[in-house]
Every structure is written in C-alpha cells, then in structure tokens.
Task: structure prediction
Amino acid sequence: MKLKIVFCLSLNVIFLVGLYNSYMEVKRERFIKKNQKPIICNVVELSKMAKASSKCNIEYKGKLYKNIKANVSVLNLGFNDADFYYDEEKDKVFYKVDIIRIVNLFLVSFFISLLLWFIPNNKFTLF
Result:
C-alpha cells in the first residue's frame, strides 16, 4: 500500500510540474511573439535528420545559438528576418512555431497517471 501511494503520488507530481513548466514556456513564447517583431539573424547551419528533429544553428548579435528546433525545409542559409524570436530574459532564440505538443503530452500523461489510483492495492506491483 505504501509503495502504491509513494509511486502514484510521485508520478502525479512529476507530470504536474512538467505540465506547469511547459505551459508557462508556451505562454511566454506566445507573449513574445505577440509583442515583439521577429529578429534579423544569420542561419549558419541546417540539419535535417527527421521531421521531428530538424534543427539549425543561428548567429544573433555575434553569439551562436545551437540546436534550435525549426522547420528546416522552409529555411535557407543566410540572413533571416521572419522566423525567429529572441527572449531577452532567458537569452534564448526560438522558432515561430508553437511547442504546444509538449503541453498536450504532459496533460495526457498526468491524466493517465491519475488512473493508477484506481488499481486495487493487492494487484499493484512494479515488477
């Protein structure tokens, strides 16, 4: 019984914290996109391994920002003035597309972890 309580509660807390952090990140990025113009930066490198893992390296204000998730099929090497935004508080450059999928992933995982509480105590085992 203690094992179930500790396991379920810790899993719920982990997913809830992940949900909160990812939601706040998406909210901050949307605020920046609404209130700022895209930055003018130099796309230095494009790497396309798969659709979900396309990344690029850009240079902005003399600093190199690596592994920015972006849709590299529509980007070209050289100067770009329409696709990237800069977060001054976090010193981070991000692509214009929302990352709402991570919020959905944490939300679904959190609700699934809540279902673990319905497993009877005598049938709950980890292995």
